[in-house]
Amino acid sequence: MLRRNLTLLSGIKVLIIDDEPEALDLTELMLSFYGAQVITCLTAVQGLERLRTFCPDVIVCDINMTRMNGYQFVQAVQDFSTDKGRNTLAIALSAPGKEEAQAYAHGAGFQRYLCKPVQLLTLLETVAELADRPIKKSGQQGAGTGPEWMPVSEVSGFAA
Asked: Signal sequence span per UniProt (predicted)?
């Protein structure tokens, strides 16, 4: 169940990097629909450039990109962040792969690893968790209060 709260991610700034325009647009739609402030980039190089003026709470980055891949990007971000004194949290997005790929992503500097196609609730929970605003699930104290709860499949335009 997903809370029908369109401000679930309100105030959370997210930088999304993916060289597949359709995947980039869908990820942006999912996060902005729930209130996140989203900036998108089609290349890792563009992402690094945007970090000069935009300080995201969370970065969502595809792994398999040309010119500079997601691993190289997140390592460059860590160097950049250390100089600026920022703590940058990042989510790797990639096609389903082996456990070694997930371990490699964590070793490169990603805090989380999600497989494409990413499920809406999984993405929302992961972004909220990294931004230190975890989503309460049914059965947890305080869950279900406020706006009504609904299955993810009922959110127009999203697949569960």
From this structure: none
CA separation for the pair 96, 120 (Å, rounded): 16
Summarize pLDDT for 35-89 with one digit per residue, the tens.
Answer: 999 999 999 999 999 999 999 999 999 999 999 999 999 999 988 765 553 578 9
Tokens of 55: 């300080």
Which domains are present in the chain? 2-154 (3.40.50.2300)
Spatial distance between the Cα atoms of 146 and 96, rounded to a whole number of angstroms? 36
Q: What is the pLDDT of residues 114-142, one digit of tens each?
A: 999 999 999 999 999 999 987 765 545 44
Question: b/e string for 71-105 if b means 16 or more Cβ within 10 A?
Answer: bebbebbbeebeeeeeebbbbbbbeeeeeebbebb
